[in-house]
Design goal:
The chain is mainly α and 232 residues long. It has eleven helices and no strands. The longest helix has 29 residues. The protein starts with a helix and ends in a 6-residue tail after the last helix.
Length: 232
């Protein structure tokens, strides 16, 4: 979404255009989250995971509709999604393992919640900031529910049984579609007083914290995880 918003847009582009682009990008990003969560529901191994995903399905549908309505209201249309959205969806669905795809969905939701923290602040004057505030509240709940499931009871057992290579594959798919440098630049556009490099590092630290929680639950020293290094 950050790359879409910044692509071929000069620094002099009006804030309203940037808001339109972000709302358009969020429309499609929320649809991807909705599709992945809905696709995971039939294969849920227990009621707890089903509750996590059903909550996401209901919320993401509302989020996409709200962003779509905002983009049409301010721009008359919704910007086309581009190849990145289709590639993200395809990569997430390429994970055949149910638990691995659930983890990728949770990690992606974590980045979304972090992005919206800054969008809320930088887009307050456009009214879009309030939308991002409300959406971020939901996204943060999705992440909390997902991480809680993966660190307790049956969910933690499934995380421990998951091959380390699949956990890393889940992470790599999310990172492939997350450009923290572009996010830093975008946040600096929205909130000029913050440093782009420091914001990019903030995103890295937040992600690494979530990954550390997951790897600590496993505690089994799988070779791929021992070799893992921060990659964004």
């Amino acid at each position: 979404m950050a790359r879409l918003a910044l692509r071929n847009r000069p620094d002099t582009a009006p804030p309203s255009e940037l808001a339109w682009l972000l709302a358009s990008g969020s429309t499609y990003a929320e649809q991807v989250g909705l599709d992945v969560a809905a696709g995971l529901v039939p294969g849920c191994p227990d009621a707890d995971m089903k509750l996590v995903l059903a909550t996401a399905v209901a919320d993401e549908a509302k989020h996409s509709a709200v962003f779509h309505a905002y983009a049409r209201a301010v721009g008359g249309s919704v910007e086309q999604p581009g190849d990145a959205v289709e590639e993200l969806s395809r990569d997430l669905w390429s994970l055949d393992d149910h638990t691995a795809r659930f983890i990728a969905h949770t990690l992606a939701e974590g980045f979304a919640a972090d992005e919206f923290h800054w969008f809320e602040r930088g887009l307050a004057a456009d009214g879009l900031g309030e939308i991002y505030r409300l959406v971020r509240r939901d996204e943060s709940r999705h992440v909390a529910l997902g991480m809680s499931y993966l660190t307790r009871g049956p969910g933690a057992d499934r995380l421990r049984r998951l091959p380390g290579s699949l956990l890393l594959a889940s992470e790599q798919i999310v990172l492939r579609h997350t450009d923290v440098e572009a996010l830093g630049s975008l946040v600096h556009r929205l909130v000029p007083e913050v440093d782009a490099a420091r914001v990019a590092e903030w995103f890295r630290v937040r992600h690494e914290t979530r990954m550390r929680v997951l790897t600590n639950v496993r505690g089994d020293g799988h070779e791929p995880l021992r070799r893992r290094k921060p990659t964004i």
